[in-house]
Amino acid sequence: MGLVELVLPNYCLLCNRQIKYYELLCSACLNDLSSGPIVLHESDILFTAYFYGRYDSKLRDLILLYKNSHHWRLNRVLASFLVKTMNTYPSDAQLITWVPSSLASLEERGFDTMALIAKSVSKMTGIVAKKTLESLSKSNKRGMTLEERRNSVKNSFSAISRIYKDIVLIDDVYTTGSTVKECARVLKDNGARSITVYCIARA
Length: 203
Ligand SMILES: [Zn+2]
Fold this sequence. Notes:
single chain, alpha/beta, Rossmann fold, two-stranded antiparallel ribbon, binds zinc ion
């Protein structure tokens, strides 16, 4: 342990083990998280979706820390998981876009969680990231039943402009897929040629 660590002790966000001052997670946690991408993928008429891992244990804790505990610097770690998934299951996309936060989530968290990750993914891959969707939803999905979630996403996104490209759509957690499906439908209706979805976790 060097002097900096004595003066400025820093701890792994997931397990509290002491780490270097510039790190966010310890090597043991990073190792636990490095098992993705999972082979499981899902096809829809509108898109194919690929996932880095299951929404459980440390991956789940990490996503929740990022979204709810002001640890926005974790965006780079989460982006690296998406890039790994994109390298394993490549697409011809020329544009990266994301599922935008609802107004309620924006107000609560102060930032668009997937926008930050999309910018990091763009830096790591060289593919342009652009906001193409706007959330029209004022409610946040927490506490809703699956049925309520499905209904709440209908017409809850609109396109900012028409885009005639092959698109990568990214999101954090894929549960019923209803949010991603709705976003893909709006993108398709607005000119998207093809859509490949990459999600950090499959619930
Ligand atoms: Zn740790």
